[in-house]
Design brief:
Layout: H1 12-24, E1 29-30, E2 37-45, H2 48-60, E3 66-69, E4 77-78, E5 81-82, H3 86-94, E6 98-101, H4 114-130, E7 138-140, H5 148-154, E8 160-165, E9 173-174, E10 178-182, H6 190-202, E11 205-211, H7 225-238, E12 241-242, H8 245-258
Parallel strand pairs: 2-3, 2-11, 2-12, 3-6, 7-8, 8-10, 10-11
Antiparallel strand pairs: 1-9, 4-5
Helix pairs in contact: 2-7, 4-5, 6-7
Length: 259
């Protein structure tokens, strides 16, 4: 089954203003700067190459990642190549990776009514459980697109919501729209990504990476195995803690309550 690339939200100046306002609305502040230097690796949609090559790279460092799944993408193909299968879900869960929610049909959360969002996440949860995954505790906005309504609604279903926004989550992180940094391209694109690793060295915080497919010839939003490994090597050299998104959020939340 071939899945087309869905449309994005409003572009141009209007789109940028809306996104900036959304980041200021419906916030659920969490302190992610508690004398810990934490990194999470996540994969959106997700491609089979992320479940195989991507997982193998993380596991070679002793780490586990978060895989944001849209159940409607099971056994499909699109610009990311082959997408996940039921066997991929089972294998990842058995090896300790986290399966997160990405809506059932990868819809734009900024453009859909609350009733649609409710249906999408509930159906996705049921279908992922049927595939052997625990009920997802973390969520990623497809396309990184959110709204105040979506943040409020989905924040009731999940412990944390991940956006994009190219930022490290620190003292005033937003659990309803956590920032994340894309890993895209080949090793020639490494300096831009590694700058965030260097930034994290300067002060405690939580750096979440995300990508899509992990192939020698990746799609527009994927990366090569060499680039992912380069980033992992830099994170390892820095001595940062690496945890899946849900586990990291729980650990930081427990520290905040204990403080």
């Amino acid at each position: 089954m071939n899945i087309p690339v869905p449309a994005f939200a409003t572009g141009g100046l209007v789109g940028r203003v809306k996104r900036r306002l959304t980041r200021l609305q419906a916030r659920r502040t969490v302190n992610c700067a508690q004398e810990r230097f934490v990194v999470s690796f996540s994969f959106d949609d997700f491609a089979r190459s992320a479940a195989t090559t991507g997982a193998e790279i993380l596991e070679s460092f002793g780490w586990r990642g978060t895989y944001y799944a849209s159940a409607g993408f099971e056994n499909a193909n699109n610009h990311l190549g082959e997408l996940f299968t039921a066997a991929d879900i089972a294998a990842l869960v058995s090896r300790g990776h986290e399966i997160g929610c990405h809506t059932e049909n990868h819809i734009n959360c900024a453009l859909n009514a609350p009733v649609v969002l409710q249906r999408e996440v509930r159906r996705n949860q049921r279908r992922l459980r049927a595939l052997g995954a625990p009920t997802p505790r973390s969520f990623a906005f497809p396309f990184g697109e959110a709204s105040a309504v979506a943040k409020t609604l989905l924040g009731r279903h999940y412990s944390c919501l991940r956006g994009i926004g190219r930022t490290i989550n620190r003292r005033y992180g937003d659990a309803n729209q956590l920032g994340a940094v894309a890993i895209e391209g080949d090793t020639g694109d490494a300096p831009a990504v590694l700058s965030y690793v260097d930034n994290l060295k300067t002060a405690p915080g939580w750096l979440i990476f995300f990508t899509h497919d992990v192939r020698e010839n990746p799609g527009q939003w994927g990366c090569t195995p060499a680039l992912l490994r380069t980033v992992c090597e830099a994170v390892q050299a820095a001595g940062f803690e690496v945890m899946p998104v849900g586990e990291a959020f729980a650990a930081l939340g427990a520290m905040e309550k204990a403080a």
